[in-house]
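Regression check, flavin-adenine dinucleotide case 380:
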Amino acid sequence: MDFSLSDEHLELRRQMREIMTATVTAEVIDETHRSGTNHAPGFIEALGDAGILARAMPGPGQDPVDMWLVSSEAEKFGAPFDAGGMATSIAGVLAQLGTDEQRRRITPGLLSGRELVCFGLTEPDGGSDLPRIKTRAVRNETDDGWIINGAKMWTTMGHVADWVFLLARSDASAGRYGGFTTFIIPMSTPGITVDPVWTMGTERSNATFYDDVRVGDECLVGEAHEGWRTMGIMLAFERGLGNTGALTPLLRRFAQWATESGTIDDPLVRDHMAQLAIEAQVAELLTQRTVWTIATGEGPGTEGSVAKVYATEAYQRAARWAQATAGADGLLRFHEAGAAADGWIDYDVRHSTPQTLQGGTSEINRNNIAERQFGLPRMR
Ligand SMILES: Cc1cc2nc3c(=O)[nH]c(=O)nc-3n(C[C@H](O)[C@H](O)[C@H](O)COP(=O)(O)OP(=O)(O)OC[C@H]3O[C@@H](n4cnc5c(N)ncnc54)[C@H](O)[C@@H]3O)c2cc1C
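Current build output:
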């Protein structure tokens, strides 16, 4: 395994750092916390203008190291990249399964950072077990279009997105994985409503409702009733590359606070910080392993699940340890007088919990590893 970065990748990293330093200021981060919308338009648009979102798009013919480098640099910096990650994933899906018309009409907006897409997959009764979703897409015989009815849960970015990538059941008689259809639909389509859902991590997500939403075949992604194939491609893009680098900024902020407060004089604290630095490095290596398997055509296997479980649980353990170490000051929020690391420790504790859920829970990823890596029996 060769870990060195080429000159081209080093240049990409330099560009990323330059853009983040210029666009992800303390005021911008404050605004994401105030609004709960983990999106910094100036940052994502600058990535679009520099052609970086196009480079970070996953899929055949793309450089997976570019994709990893962009999300990894953003996470290490603490820059909000969720909108960029969703846009590049869907651009990658459209590159493989979309029509020429969709690639002309939708992809440029996504890769410029000026149009956002949200994921309408999870439902109140179907998160881990996606085949249980109940949102229905029914053929409208009169105009050859579709009528969609249902409710989605956790549609993050739904309140600012231009598009929703939606999974619906189009043929209930087609067995567990048959009869799904995926759509990409303008959020402005009549019949779509968005209600806020506030998470403990301060992030705003949404419940979205689809009442007699009428769309034409131009909104289909892939073939009708073949949506499970589309989902396989999309979920493979999502797993393992994102949400694995949060330990690094946590450790950086904790180290600064521990130095300023004198907590670092305690040898047990220093010892534990060294352990966290090791765990951050392991998380990065596991993520690189996922990239490597994709780059060499071996993946995606279970590497993404391994990286996600390890990294998000290490982040959660670290945040809780940091809070216990900071004591009462670790419970104070951003800008409250005396808040440890100016409120970041409290934030990391709250933010690290949803991280082990979104994009596939730890339990589901463990099941995936058990079944696919060790051939253990399915328990459901
Ligand atoms: C902050 C946040 C943002 C999100 N953003 C989006 C988004 O933008 N778009 C979107 O579509 N979804 C989004 N999600 C949804 C996310 O993907 C789901 O929460 C996740 O897949 C789990 O589904 P669920 O919440 O329905 O939990 P459930 O599936 O109801 O699971 C509940 C618990 O049971 C466990 N469990 C379930 N089945 C099994 C099993 N077979 N074996 C062992 N344990 C099991 C789970 O691990 C979990 O602990 C988001 C979630 C969060 C928290």
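Comparison notes: The first helix runs from residue 7 to 23. The chain has three domains: 7-115, 118-225, 239-374. No diff flagged against the previous build.
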